[in-house]
What we know:
- By secondary structure, this protein is α+β, with helices and mostly antiparallel strands.
- The protein has two domains: 2-78, no CATH class; 88-297, Fumarylacetoacetate hydrolase, domain 2 (Alpha-Beta Complex), CATH 3.90.850.10.
- It has eight helices and 19 strands.
- Strands 1, 2, 3, 4, 5, 6, 7, 8, 11, 12, 14 and 17 form a twelve-stranded mixed β-sheet that branches.
- The N and C termini lie far apart (42 Å).
Amino acid sequence: xxLVSYEVAGATEVGVLKGEQIVSLSRAxxxxxxxxxxxxxxxxxxxxxITHWADNRPWVEAVQATRAPDWQLDQVHLSxxxxxxxxxxxxxxxxxxxxxxxxxxxxxxxPEHQIWFTKLGHAVNxxxxxxxxxxxxxxxxxxxxxxxxxxxxxxxxxxxxxxELVFGYCVGNDVSVRDWQKRTPQWMLGKSFDTHAPxxxxxxxxxxxxxPHGLDLRCWVNGELRQSSNTRLxxxxxxxxxxxxxxxxxxxxxxVIFTGTCSGVGAAFNPPKFLREGDLVRxxxxxxxxIESRCIQERL
Length: 300
């Protein structure tokens, strides 16, 4: 199943994506003909849907099967599937070829431990919304990644059970401002500029994806293929990541995990190919669809 968050007629809704059409769960609930066991709030409907999925899934399936589509995709504005996650976490240096890329001023070894950083909430961006190139840098870069969405509240998850905690998957771009990223050992600021965490276009449920460690990932800039890899090549796979993170923090429904990028980032070219105004970045992953962002320059 493919779930979407979107804005239409001044309201935020959630729905089921069926081809180029959307069946609105929000409107089905509001009409009250067949209400969900656990109602969705207007504030965080997608997180409510994820949190109470076990109770609400039969209702969602019934609505999807019986309700006529409410919208064509081109009639709505797609948001990030989870517009306001409580946590936005990302792992660095998680593909061997990316570790081995020759980037000026860096000397890198294969990580012994997982390298984690946060991307702050204001970085969340819709799947087709513009990427804002900051006025304070000329070194904005792209990083195509698979994104996982946590489905249940959990702590101290054994690796062999980690798959049970994933609700679904998205396509993401861990946009990175390289000069700011390199100023300190902590990468948070360089990874958290406004609009620098686009993901979507939908939230594909885990049962539809199966094993996420075999999906082809590609990233183009202006039609030029820059990144091409497969999620099986992660150094620390998703189950390792969830087990590791959950030793530190309680993971919550709707938490977003960027699982790492492969080789081919702009900083690795000689000279570097950083993003410029007008550039079009497209990231595509098998079974999950694609996201696409035009770059626009911030004006002071």
